[in-house]
Amino acid sequence: MRTVDIVVVGGGPAGAAAAQRLKGAGANVLVLDKERFPRHKLCAGWITPQVLTDLQVEVNAYPHGFLSFRRLHFHVKGPHVAVPCIQHSIRRFEFDAWLLRRSGAEFVQHTVRDIRADGDEYEIDGMFRCRYLIGAGGTSCPVRRSLFGTAPRARTLQTATLELEFPCDWRDGDCHLWFFEHGLPGYSWYVPKAEGWLNVGVGGMAARLKRRGENIREHWSHLAGKLQRQFGIKPGDPTGYSYYVRDFGGPLRIGNAFLTGDAAGLATRDLSEGIGPAIRSGQQAAHAIIMGSEYSLEGVTGASLGGGLISRCMDWAFTRGAGRAMRA
Hints:
Blueprint: E1 2-9, H1 13-24, E2 29-33, E3 46-47, H2 49-55, E4 67-76, E5 80-89, H3 92-103, E6 106-109, E7 115-118, E8 121-124, E9 128-135, H4 142-147, E10 158-167, E11 175-179, E12 186-193, E13 197-205, H5 206-211, H6 216-231, E14 239-244, E15 253-254, E16 257-259, H7 275-291, H8 309-319
Parallel strand pairs: 1-2, 1-9, 2-6, 4-11, 9-16
Antiparallel strand pairs: 3-5, 4-5, 7-8, 8-9, 10-13, 10-14, 11-12, 12-13, 15-16
């Protein structure tokens, strides 16, 4: 059986960020993931300047396609506002593999099935043993399933999403977001990426869609028509998935086991942004291990738009008060 200091289950942004910080402190870290990297990962790929700050990365040091927006276009049931900003987009296929490689941690492709606590340590599939365990395996993370199973998630905070990323000779290099169109309890998006890629998608709160007898595919059809009329783009068939936005409740640490990123349900309440909270939570988990301190999500924001009035209005409109009230 292989014994290491720390096993990180999941090689995405949360796991890679945790692994990098732990390796920098001299820990013996092993990252396990069922996928081989680079992997196909659907995501709008919108990253904020704060993500670059947290990762201590300069834009010109990133070796893959990177696009910066100077404006974000907010469309709210028709009215349109173009907001000056600096935001960025990446392809997760490239970004995740780069983060994992940059961490310097050893990586093993392995599908985790069974995790058992043994005193202060953990045994994984009878093959790996560790003192500390970080769950960074997304919504269906086996660390959460095996060790945190008594903490059910609030179904009212689950999103339903359809998304497509494809090569496209896009003409409009700004990001567009459409809120509440066609009665959607969420928003749809157009996110151009460098080197001729485009990500488009639609996401809404699953419980509210179900109560109204709606299917997220109806809203995809509405978006597809809009894209064709406004941009001359005809998208193909999307892929569906779901995840949870933040509810500020439930344990994130049990013993020496930690939950981070989507495993902890940390996507922001106003824009369902996941990359930034994932990276910062991974770094916070690593800090708790290195310093022997409490695992705190202080500084891991629950809002992408600052947590003020606009964020709170978005939160209410999407979730109608589900879970605990949003905090910045």
